Amino acid sequence: MRIPIPTELTKGQYLGNEEYIPKLMNIPYEESIESASNTILSASYVIALVGAGLSAESGIPTFRGKGGLWMKNGEPGPNQYKTFLKDPKSWWINNINEKFDPERTKFRKAIDNSKPNKGHRALSKMEFVGILKHQITQNVDGLHYIAGSRNVTEIHGSRHQMRCIDCETRIPRQNIEMLLEKHPSSEKIKLLPPTCNECGGIIKPDTVMFGESIPNSVLEECMNQASKSDCILVIGTSATVYPAASIPQKIKNNGGKIIELNPSTTSLSKMADIIIRGQTSHTIPDLTQKLGLQ
Ligand SMILES: [Zn+2]
């Protein structure tokens, strides 16, 4: 079946062409699913870029969306990492104090209590049969792994890990929590900030702060995946945070296709070749069904 994209648009001449979105929006849902399925099957290396929209359907609040963490609290400043480096001990004291930031505590508890949804599981199925080669996720909740996916890069880090700021060694968050739990409050403070067993460097959560570079090994893997890919599913993200946002652009520039799955129009929509609107816990399973996966 013909992919319902005017030819000139696939050549990348449409950037900034607002007319483009209404044209794609008028394509019936079933037809978009079929086009996406055909595009995926004819591609040689399909990857996905995933954002908070997918995990929102597992009950994890988004950051910027309606009712999102940062909509209530204000977005963290661009110097979040600098503030950490300036005084890691104070940062850690606040970090282990659940009352310091009740919204943050709520967000963390939501992650701890969350389960993968049908969208995560459908992606895992696509990986299992070899259709989906890799997922680059901006989510820190680890739900892709729980759903069974293995080829995942967590570009913004993981809530379940801690990382040495010098040598990038990662340790489970539980190890630090258990270490701190063993000590009374007065003693705990002396243990902060925790340090790396390998090199003595300062330990911080693996989740990447504003103003902090994505760890080299992670960014390299993302760019390596993007350079191999000729088709990307952009799922539940408005792709406005860099460097993640540059990944679909890179694939597009190399002549690849962008399939957007999102309930709303985003800044990426006008770059997309196919748009599938709707809750991703429904649209991804619809797509896997069309691909013949049960
Ligand atoms: Zn280290």
Explain what you see.
The chain has 294 residues and is α/β, with parallel strands linked by helices. It has a domain at 1-60 and 116-160 and 214-294: Rossmann fold (3-Layer(aba) Sandwich), CATH 3.40.50.1220. It has 15 helices and nine strands. It has a six-stranded parallel β-sheet with strand order 3-2-1-7-8-9, with helices on both faces. Strands 5-4-6 form a three-stranded antiparallel β-sheet. A hairpin with a 5-residue loop joins strand 4 and strand 5 (170-172). The relative contact order is 0.19. Mean pLDDT is 87; it is low at 1-17. It binds zinc ion.
Task: Give me some keywords for this one.
294 residues, Rossmann fold, three-stranded antiparallel beta sheet, disordered N terminus, binds zinc ion
Summarize the structure.
This protein is of the alpha/beta class.
Annotate the secondary structure layout.
Blueprint: H1 7-10, H2 20-25, H3 29-42, E1 46-50, H4 52-56, H5 69-73, H6 80-86, H7 88-95, H8 102-112, H9 118-128, E2 132-137, H10 143-146, E3 152-154, E4 161-164, E5 170-172, H11 173-181, H12 185-188, E6 203-205, H13 216-228, E7 231-235, H14 246-253, E8 257-262, E9 274-277, H15 280-290
Parallel strand pairs: 1-2, 1-7, 2-3, 7-8, 8-9
Antiparallel strand pairs: 4-5, 4-6
Helix pairs in contact: 3-15, 6-7, 9-15, 13-14
Residues 164, 166-167, 169, 196, 198-199, 201 line the site of zinc ion.
